[in-house]
Amino acid sequence: MRNLFLIITILLILASVVTWLTRAEQEGVTTIVWTAGLSADRIEQVAAFHEWMKKTGRVNAKGEPLFRVRLEAADNQSTLIQAVSGMAGDLIDHVPVKRFAPMGVLEDITDFARENGLDPGSNYGAARDLLMYNDRQYAYACNLAAPALLCNVDTFRKYGMEPPPEEWTPEEFERIGLEFTRRANAGKPRQEVFFSGAMPNIILPLARSMGCDMFNETLTAPQLTDPSFLKALTLYHRWVDELHLIPTAAEIASESSAQSSVNSDATPHLVSGRYAMITTGRYVNMDLRRFKTEPINLSFSQYPEYEFKNLVFISRNTAIFKGSKHKDFAKIFLLFLASREYNELLIRSSDGLPPNPRWAENNPEYHHPAGHENEGNLHTNELKWARTIALPESLSPYYPLAEDKIRYAYERVSGGLSPADEALKLANDSIAYSIRKTVSSIPSLQERYRHDCELQQKIEQYKAEGKKIPATWIKNPFYQRYYREKNLLQE
Fold first, then answer.
1. What pTM was estimated for this model as a whole?
2. Would the N or C end of the chain have less CB density within 10 A of its end CB?
């Protein structure tokens, strides 16, 4: 019954907002559309934007906001269809820039971003590849995340152990995990407690920690058959199927929870102590703070990795539709996303990393939010790692669909369909085929692809001769940082 009343209340709020915005349009106030979905968080952000415009003097003769923002719901596929057909909203949320920009549906904001401190160099440098295409910027982040392992400190201490260190190796992961599961399940007829929830997304950063990425330096070919990926996938499979530190897919499917979460059922299992840790970021607090349970003490650790420490950086982007009739108004909204008011709103709500780290880096309200002391080092560590070791996934312009073939390979192994080397070869061959098909069917890519393949040959020659590689030859952001740290880059 309580849930029913909550649903009715939310629906009434949404209906009121829609009615208010419709009245504003009827009164002649310009309204721009933000296709970001209808939710309590987005409604709060739109309301904050209207107040920010008043505060910054962007008002009409009546002292009201110069224009209004209206929320509309759409997924990536329907948004892309609307954009290509010229019917998209003025602001497009959840934009995968590498997919949308080549289609000519996004406004180039490079100069505007640089002049107003919205460029990646002024914020999170590692976010560059998430916001840009062909060295031009097309979006700004609404929030970001560098997911890692969030630990329930109380669960560890319940079994007489301390939570994991902030950095650790796969060998340490196994040793600590085996001791934890032994203690946590002692005397039980079957295993009830796991060291971690599922985390197949560790395979990429684990392979990267050994010096190999999904694509080569010029993004012209996949590298999933490299020994690093074989070792990473085999290790993860061992942790699930052999050591049982992590539940199998069948065990996860059999679990049920009445509580919804940004991490599916994983968050309730972290709270209950069934999982000692899960993969997530500070955005998990949007759930944890609402759960009707005693707060749990948290700590934040990196994935277990080898020498080259890294995390996968992700962002939720908003871009301006190229066909918008209100581009100048839409740019004002992007300024709001970088403002103190918006960033402090995200800091208070814990809705991911704020897009402008300037408002978080020396802010006690970010690092140690009052009343949430149980959240430990989560906020500090995620911001620190986002600015030091996080890197986005490599996205090839010749593989625009960007299907997750690493997960495909793991699922074949976990399902008993293929050994690890065969599954990775199938995944690699699938990507290589898609690249060939994409290049052959899009004439505008062919010259660029030929040039990048020639560069790749030069890179291979330089590596064989032990020479430093010119930075301008490398298109893959992972290798730019990896070679720089290894002193293998010619700046």
1. 0.90
2. N
